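The step that takes the researchers longest sounds almost clerical: writing a folded protein down as plain text. Below is the pair of lines this work produces for a single protein:

——
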Amino acid sequence: MVAFAAFARTAAALAPRAAVVLGSGLGGAAAAFVERAAVPFGAVPGLVPPSVHGHGGTLAVGEWSGMPALLFRGRVHFYEGHPWEVVTGTVRTAAELGARRLVLTNAAGGINPALAPGSLMAIQGHLKLLGPAAWRGLAAGDGPVRPYAARLIEVMGAHERTGGRELLAGLYAALTGPSYETPAEIRALAACGADAVGMSTALEAEAAAALGLEVAAVSCVTNKAAGIGETALDHAEVLTNAALAVDRLGALLGALIRAPY
């Protein structure tokens, strides 16, 4: 782990207080990030390389909008065959390297009619529908009820209003995947109040909050959920539509990194 030891020394010198996790196809949102050092996930204790296209699989440290930050280019998912300890490895790594704020991003399907492809949604709560294994991640009674920091949701809303936009704060449904949901499942999720659906984020948010990190999360809506849109769902569409929002997302992430700690 020589490569990671050198990376950790660079990170210690920069002292990042924020960490960002970029979801599927969202690498372009880090255009303002100035990299000082990087290491592949496989060289980091507790992390494994992602197998999904659109997840770079590197951990970098540098400056974002002049603020020191950690950047995880991609993540791993339950559907790749990993236990919760591996899925949340980025969270523990961020905390061990000094981060006190975790900003999560994901590509999601839009359930709320107001969320067209290319839209952003601040996550204010989630439905964790990831199966029994996901519930073993935290000891009984330790699970944070509200992992998403209300203060940071307000920061995101204020930032968007400066650009003349309103940012929906909504409910994210986290499912195991890797298959997309059926129209019937989407109707059930809508009845439960879900605004967007994806296959990540919920466990990371809970693990981060349990470690005392301040958490913000943003969904980039890359497609209409099954039965709502008129086109067939595929991962290529996710990556294409993610590119529509990366500039706006990058500016929003900068605002979150700069917000007072």
About this structure: Residues 2-258 form a domain with the Rossmann fold fold (CATH 3.40.50.1580). The CA atoms of residues 34 and 63 lie 5 Å apart.
